[in-house]
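Quick start: load a record and inspect it. Here is SET domain-containing protein:
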Amino acid sequence: MKIPQKLFAQDTAAGRELRLTGLSAATVLFAASAGIEGVLKNSALLACVPGSIAAAVIASRSIPAPVFRSQPLQMGVDVEVLPSEGRGEGLFALRTIEKGSYIFDYLGETLSQEEIDEKYVGVRSDSSSTAYLLELNGPLGLKPTFVDAFDPTLSNAARFMNHGGDASNLYKFKQRYPTRRLSFFAKERIESGEELLWNYGASYWSNREEEIV
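Running the structure step on this input writes:
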């Protein structure tokens, strides 16, 4: 779960935004100059191809590969919340989940950076109330939005899943276009009774060192 840039200075979202913006601008400028050259030389091929290449480059950074999603797992049918040793509570499988199976999306209140700043003004960046924030970048990494799963009435079972590090049995898939969403899939076969775990990422823990201590 990634914490907003304005809450944690270590986040590199602004750097990614700047780099991707520069890449896109350079690609479009190259295409435009090549297109003008094509027009001057009366070459339709030279005029059109660079623009098509530029569009393909931008689209490739915006549109994910197709992902098959079945019905999400249901609480009380497929998964349940149980005590997790050393972690408080966690989410456990009630049946065998095959490798590659769609688990569910990370759901919650969708907020902009400005709304996050207003909602958590004066709140410590390592507060438990910000522990359920997840950042979703838009196409090219621009204008991030955030999913806040702190309110259980607006979230789903994903909020109960613990960090598994290298032992995680789930992997995440970020979709940026046409809608932003984070989906979870089974990285391996998960047996009944096993806890569902995913990797929160190094930045999540480096930004919460004070709370851990």
